[in-house]
Amino acid sequence: MSVPASTYPATPLALRFAQRARLRARRERWARRGLAAAAALLGLLVMAMPLFLLASANAGGGWRDLLLPLLAGSIKAAFYALLVAIPLGLGSAIWCARFAAPPLRRLLKPLFEVFEAVPAVVLGLIAALVLAPWLARQVLALAVFLALLPLTLAACGSAWQRLASPAWRRRMQGRESWLLIPPILLLAGLALQLGVWLGGGAVGALLRPATPWNGLVIGLMLGLAVMPTVFTLAEEALFGVPVELASAAQALGATRWQALWRLVLPVAAPGVLAAVLLGFSRALGETMIVLMASGNTPLLEASPLSGLRSIAANLALEAPEAAGGSAHFGQLLYSALLLFVLCLVLNTLAEMVRARLRRRLAGL
Amino acid sequence: MLRTGTRHAPRRRGDSGLWLAAGAVALSLAALIALLFVLLQQSARPFLPAAVAELRWQGAAGPQQALAAIVREDADELIARASEWQRRGGAYLRIARADLLERTFPPDALALRLADGRELYLRGDAHALAALPSAAGLALPGMPAELPLRRGELVEILAPNQLGPGGRLRVATQRAWAFVSGSPGGDSGSAGLLPALVGTVVLVLLMSVLVMPLGVLVALWLHEYAGRGALAQLLRAAVANLAGVPSVIYGLFGLVLFVHGLGAGLDALFHADALPSPTWGTGGLLWSALTLALLTLPVVVIAVEEGLARVPAGLRQGALALGATRAEMLWRVVLPVARPALLTALILAVARAAGEVAPLMLVGAVKYAPALPLDGEFPYLHLSKQFMHLGHSVYDLALTGADAQRDLGEAHAAALLLLIVVVALNAAAIVVRNRLRERSRELSA
Prior knowledge:
- Chain A is mainly alpha-helical.
- Chain A has a domain of 232 residues: MetI-like (MetI-like fold, Orthogonal Bundle).
- Chain A has 14 helices and no strands.
- Chain A is flat and about 90 Å long.
- The relative contact order of chain A is 0.14.
- Chain B is α+β, with helices and mostly antiparallel strands.
- Chain B has two domains: 130 residues, no CATH class; 251 residues, MetI-like fold.
- In chain B, strands 4-3-2-1-5 form a five-stranded antiparallel sheet, with no helix packed on it.
- In chain B, a hairpin with a 2-residue loop joins strand 1 and strand 2.
- The interface between A and B is large, with 107 and 94 residues.
């Protein structure tokens, strides 16, 4: 266009606009259709997943012998993992959301987020090659450590409250967790010594695992893997409770802990429950850690000192070799369907409970 | 009421729970540090040059003697690697502490490494050996006559007992670099991670190309067109549930849908002459990328939708008020403003995909692939071929390696590399997200 724009009167511009209007309207229509098509494709994929499992799954009569041990293995692994993940994740969440000094919280939150992203195969590797052989000799030490840990923490707490000067207590308020690292390490050393000392006797023989790759190892490592999930969701729920509630309680004479335990925790309870449910669902579906460190023996035993084989690990082990369309493959699909439904139920429950928390917080 | 005076001050009662919570944080941090420490320590092991000792021990048939590198020792026994004349991993000695008679570390002990990964130990002069022409045959003490060696086959000549800490570190760095950038040496086990690294990167790039357009389109529809309608809520719930489906089920889905379904169909149509050996009807790069794209789709949709929600309403209304259609407003205003959110979504998807191993075991990652998926031959990117993957290499080296003493260390090194890649990606996502939050705050202010 070499003609200067100012020589055009207003009407041709309107004309050009009118000419382009049809093109623009068409583009708008196509954009809408394209987006709707993409959404429909996604919806179709979502529907396809359970449907294909349903259509080709085939229990083949082997339910009791084949699937029950696998299901029991999955639940056992997830249960022991939660035994580790709930105290660690929930305790950390409580500390981080309500008590930690803001700089500490800003450090901890991304740290846990990154921890959540650590590939499971890395954790599985350490569990299988380092933790399992070491733990096989140190079960007793672990038991001693776990038994003495709460006592030690409480004792450290009350000692600090009594002995430290008020100035130091104020300085460390919200940072007390750093103070606890030396006592925890000391206790670990002591427990190792005690484990060696007690290990020769009858108790040591009783606590000797049948195999290094057992439920205990899975519980510890899978628990660590699930812990950030529990932490993130529970922290979010606890942090969302208005500060005024706790402040009012403390103004009426409650301690920081009483305010939390009696007031904040009950309000945030649905969020915490959702965190636990999602943690359980994630632990059920976790594959690599269980595959590498559980020994993959399909046993129907609840003992943490025996091995297990989970549905997910079984899928990873057997599906690459099974011929498509065979009875074996149908059975694998059936077990996958079972796992899918379990996770679906847990996730949906968690989502419902979280929605309840949101309503409750909106009311406050 | 009066009883709560100064004497029974309830201030300290029941505060021990607080310390338990603090202890949970401390314990988690300690566990995190311990994991990292173990990983670093274990992965440094195969690269640090081991001391070479002259061992004398009480064997079944009288005292025995050998020059060997000490690989591992604990309170009960000692594992050493003697010269591997025959094959890699074939000359380990396991000696009980009680049987060990004498152990000296002669300063002139040499550790030679061959191109195929074998190691030889002998006493001699490193400089004289290094100065030989590469075609010269070697006459080493203890060498079987039927297995001649040339100087050119030696890739590393070390006198490990003379190395100081700096020298050991230098050798370890060189070896680690060679391991990361090298290729596997045929059947003698793994000697490099390069193919696995290339396979991982190509897979993740392909997955991003597949997942980003669909994910962004779905998020746009959900947020801009569907709003809070019943259909949109249903799709949102489905996406949220999809995010919670175990990854191995995605693998199974990919196996049935892509490999057994699409792949077998393609074979019957286009590669019928090659049957029964499958072309597409087996695990491969494309099927793995599609499976991972499905796996990461919820991540992308959720992250992009969150980013779209952060675009200030004033910008949209301004664009619409100036006469833009809705598509124009989205293309010219909303998407450019939400660009960091798209980047966050991409990085999160890549980080999730790079660390996933379980689905890949079903749809295409293998222990050893003879060729890279990306090369100079047409069509350059080989979509139907099986490939090596970093995470799968970790699993494979750890559980099925032939030479445990070396492979376990290398598995840890591969795991460390994978961890570095994934953590760097996640840290990048967190930084971008925080920038994005600041920017959206500025825009709405």
